[in-house]
Amino acid sequence: GDSVTQMEGPVTLSEEAFLTINCTYTATGYPSLFWYVQYPGEGLQLLLKATKADDKGSNKGFEATYRKETTSFHLEKGSVQVSDSAVYFCALSDRGFKTIFGAGTRLFVKA
Amino acid sequence: EPEVTQTPSHQVTQMGQEVILRCVPISNHLYFYWYRQILGQKVEFLVSFYNNEISEKSEIFDDQFSVERPDGSNFTLKIRSTKLEDSAMYFCASSEGQGAYNEQFFGPGTRLTVL
After folding, report:
1. Which residues contact residue A2 at a Cβ distance below 8 angstroms, ignoring those fewer than 6 apart?
2. Partners of residue A98 in chain B, C-beta under 8 Å
3. Interatomic CA distance for residues A33 and B47, integer angstroms
4. 3-class DSSP state for residue B114?
5. Average pLDDT of span A1-29
6. Between A49, A93, A101, which is nearest B43 by CB?
7. Mean pLDDT for chain A?
């Protein structure tokens, strides 16, 4: 079945460092891909999405490009802030009845 | 901006008791979902609901669980006899349509604690 694999955390960075969180997926069809963020004690917020190959989703300085050839959707940010500390979930939606999530990557950003 | 709402934000119950978690999806959405996140673990799909029927359910969604749309606005998840392992954050979501292009919008979650 469809699945999402993302890099294990936690990831600890200093403020203004470059962030990459790797995500790869397995799907039988042509899924849409998402990154969700969960701040401490809060629910899931959609960070960005891409619906077809080579699309780039971007929001709040975060970017991810839908790479069909490598089945990847890596999350990047050029300069992280303390306020970016959260858990990041990569996810896919194929037929649309459900969203399948990766295990989540916790990011700590130190001042 | 329209959003999915959930009540209560936190529910504490005794093992064996019934609980009902409530959700108000976005008003023009037709597809509704419940997900669960046990503390520190991944978000897991429970069930999807469309046209007053379950569209798909996971292995987690056994006979102890049921969903209902009792009126035009609410969507509920009932756990008939709660177990300790039902303690989790439960997220409701809704979408306008189905398929990969239809984004699911998530509510803030209900934290269920079973004692």
Report:
1. A25, A26, A27, A28, A31, A92, A94, A100
2. 33, 45, 48, 56, 58
3. 20
4. strand
5. 93
6. A101
7. 93
